[in-house]
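Key idea: predict the complex, not the pieces.
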Amino acid sequence: MRQKAIPALVLLMSAYWFYSGWFVYGVWYAGGLGGGFMPVLSSSLAAIFAIVLLIRGDAAAGAIPWSAFIPVAMVALAVTLSHAIGLLPAVGVMLFVWVWLLERYPFGRALVIAAGPTLAIYGVFRLWLQVPFPTGALFGG
Amino acid sequence: MTEILSLLGSGFAVALTPTNLMYATIGAAMGLIVGAMPGIGSLAGIALLLPLTFKLDPTGAIIMLAALYYANMYGGSFSAILLNIPGDSPAVMTAVDGYKLTRAGKAGKALFTAIVASMIGGTIGMVILTVMGPLLADVGLRFGPAEMAAVIVLAFTSIGWLLGESPAKGGLATALGLMLACVGVDLARGGSRFAFGLPDLMSGITFVPLVIGMFGFSQVMILMKDFRSQGQDRGLADVGRETLSIRRSVLSRQEFLRILPTAGKSGLLGTFVGVLPGAGATMAAFLCYVLEKRTGRDGARLGEGVYEGVAAPEAGNNAAAAGTFAPLLSLGIPGGGTTAVLLGGLMMWGLTPGPLLFSEQPEFCWGLIASMYVGNIICVFVAIAMIPFVTNILRVPVRIVAPVITAVCVVGAYSVDNTMFDVVVMLAAGLVGFFLTQYAYPTAPLLLAFVLAPILERSSSAAFEISGGSVSIFYESPIALGFLLVIAAICLAPPALKAARGLRRTKQPGE
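Result:
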């Protein structure tokens, strides 16, 4: 069943895209294309391919270990922390937590590994390219 | 011809002054660095560096910015080949074969291929720009909305079954890319579509966070899935000490002869695509890849990690970077977003691009063209010198590389529009890219469809506006009709050939 999840989701999505394109945005508008033309065209194509794949089936992917989702959890942590302490410190904390707790580097080495890229990012993005990073609620951002 | 050579000679006299040479070198070095950084790209890079040139003379400023622009194409390939993160959209196709070469322990050779092909493509583009600039711009002007829409549909017919084993999966990925491109501003009428009440979605999904997520972040997830079980201190690729030297990265005579025809024809096609208004380097890279896939001696193996798969898009996007200057200088029409910023720069200094620019400001025009030749050579040396340093990245254990790439993905996605929403987009795109990859769906067609869809919508909408809603505009134009016939041939030829073969087989036993 799991191998049919992608075409099934795309089929559902295409149904919504088609409905919105046809009935909400309109395909044709006073002698020209309406905003619904591309949604209807793309969703029709998606639906055809999704149905073909649903009928034909697909080879199942192997089991996905939990470790594949570590980066997702870490980015979620950084995004959440950025609201409180700002983006750059949040990225630093993310790096440290990942390297120290998950990759089991010694505390001091993990600190150095986390600090290096954080400082490099600060130098390139903040000082050179002048990207205004959010500072977070704790620092008055 | 003699006059052109004489004018080019005077251009070299301007470009080779120590000051302008320094500007070109600074631009090339910055372009390489900026290009290798995911999330910045040539458009943002030029926009960021524009204020630095305020105090320079117009010739020096444009020379520096132009060097930044085409060096960016070199830089984009570095992160695409080494980390599967295209620095900018023109490097998307380079990542397909480039990263596979890296995983096979051929990172140095892949980078060298990219540099050599970029140099060949760029030089072809510049020679054509020098000799036929105004003429090419005239041909490009014949491409109206109908012709542009037809050429993009032609491109779409090749996307799906280009990169995957299953045409249906490639088709689904392409259609998904088209659907995602519908989010945001309705290019036909100007309203907002599929924003779901989120202000950040009103202007659509930003390409760079999508590409960082789809290629870069999903790759981190795959690394975490594959490498953690294979050894904690393993690097990204099996890179021996010898592989890191420039000498070991240099292509053999045989390898060079393999990529030479690929780079040559991609250079020619890329220049032409660069001249087309609105097409740009991304489309050039993609079309050159398609051309190589269809006509190359080893075309069937493209996508598996072959040098031609790196050479074709790299030669194409560098040639396009040069070609795009033809309509900019001779007609004042920018070929893409980056040249639009350059156009703004020219006008800021009181220069009005157009046919009169060549006659009224020859020193500036030919100085710029000559500096592109010089800058191209500078780029080659700077890029080759960087190979031993950048390939060292591959030796770092995955358990350090994965967190660092994730940090770069987060900051790169944020820095495009300075919004945390783009980080969320990057995260979602990464998850989608990961699951698509796990089920053997190709992700490159999705991204290319996402890039080309707005041009298709804009062009077809404008074509219908011009014709008053009649489809006749597509077959009354000989160029558009030609493209439509090629599309029909591409779609009908495989089933027709299959049917003919089947007919022949059924006849044989009875004969």
